[in-house]
Design a protein that fits this description.
There is one protein chain. The protein is globular. Strand 1 and strand 2 (14-16) form a beta hairpin. The longest helix is centred in the N-terminal third of the chain and has 22 residues, at 24-45. The two termini are 25 Å apart. A two-stranded antiparallel sheet has the order 1-2. The chain has five helices and two strands. By secondary structure, it is mostly helical. Helix 2 (24-45) runs antiparallel to helix 5.
Length: 117
């Protein structure tokens, strides 16, 4: 297991160069959290839409990571952001809309940077 190498980029912020070049770990991790959130929504509120949407989008992000497909990662991230971002702004609640908004923003940026290479 390689240790990540940290460097300072032009904007003088600490960036993990490994995450910038390999979105696999970011997509798989965010996808697992989104899928887990869907399961938790179903268990807590018996929300079948949460289970289906969280499960499918989480699996899609994990698949984008495993297949090393940043294009798929960007598409799923943008859809998640479009669906959950307005809910977060409207409700102000971090769970679940805020967390999904933050995760999808991160995955969108990481995948977008990888596409531009």
């Amino acid at each position: 297991l390689k240790r990540p190498h940290f460097q300072v980029d032009r904007a003088s912020s600490l960036v993990c160069s490994r995450a910038r070049s390999r979105p696999m770990e970011v997509n798989v991790g965010a996808g697992a959290l989104v899928a887990l959130g869907g399961v938790m929504g179903y268990m807590k509120k018996k929300s079948l839409p949460s289970l289906i949407a969280g499960g499918l989008s989480g699996l899609g992000l994990m698949a984008a990571g495993v297949a090393d497909s940043p294009k798929l990662g960007v598409v799923i991230s943008v859809v998640l952001l479009a669906m959950m971002g307005p809910n977060f702004v409207k409700s102000g609640k971090f769970m679940p809309a805020g967390m999904v908004t933050v995760l999808s923003t991160i995955t969108m940026i990481v995948n977008g940077r990888n596409l531009m290479k």
